[in-house]
Amino acid sequence: MSRRGRARRANRPIRRALCRDPRLLLRLGAWSLAETAPALVAGLAIARAIDEGFAAGRPGTGFAWLAVLGGAWLVAAAGARQVVLAVASIVEPFREELLRHVVESALRRSATTGRDPGAAAVARSNIQVELARDALASVITVVRSFAFTAVSVLVGLAGLVPQVLVLVLPPLAAGLGMFLLSLPALARRQRDFIVADERTAASLALMAGGLRDITATRSAGRVADRVGRRVGEQARAERSLARVSALRTASLTVGGGLPVLLILAGTPWLLRQGAGAGTILGALVYVTQSLAPSLGNLVQGLGMSGVRLRVSLERILGSGEPYRPEGRRVPPEAGIDLRDVRFAYGPHAEPVISGLELSVPAGDHLAVVGPSGIGKSTLAALVTGLLTPDAGRVLIGGVPADRVAPACRVLIPQESYVFRGSLLENLTYLAPAASPGAVDDAVAAVGLDALVARLGGYSAEIHSGLLSPGERQLVALARAYLTPARLVVLDEATCHLDPAAEARAEEAFARRGGTLVVIAHRLTSALRARRILVMDGTSVHLGGHGELLASCPAYADLAGHWNPLDAQELVP
Amino acid sequence: MRTADRLVRRAVRHGGPWLGVLTLTSLLGALMELALPFALGRAVDALVAGGPVNGPWPVTCAVVVIVGAACDVAGVRAAGESGARVTRRIRLRLLRYVLGTGPAMTRRFPEGELVTRMGVNAEEVGHAPESIVTGAALAVPTAGGLVALTLIDPWLTLTLLAALVLIALVLRAFLRATTTIAAGYQEAQGDIAARLVDALAGARTIAAAGTADRERDRVLTSLPRLRRHALDMWRANARAGVRAGAVIPLLEVAVLGVGGLRLASGDLTVGELYAAARYAALGAGLGSALGYVNRLARARAAAARVVGLLTERPVAYGELPLPAGPGTLELRGVTAGGLRGIDLLVPGGSSVAVVGRSGSGKSLLAALAGRLTDPDRGEVLLDGVPLRRLSAGALGRAVGYAFERPVLVGDTIADAVGLGRDTPDRGAVHAAARAACADAFVRRLPRGYDTPPQEAPMSGGERQRLGLARAFAHGERLLVLDDATSSLDTVTERQVGQALSGELGGRTRLIVAHRAATAAAADRVVWLDGGRVRAYGAHAALWRDPGYRAVFQATRRPAPPPGDVPPPPTPTSGDTPSADVTPPDVTPPHVPVPAVPARRSAP
Question: What ipTM was reported for this prediction?
Answer without folding.
Answer: 0.81
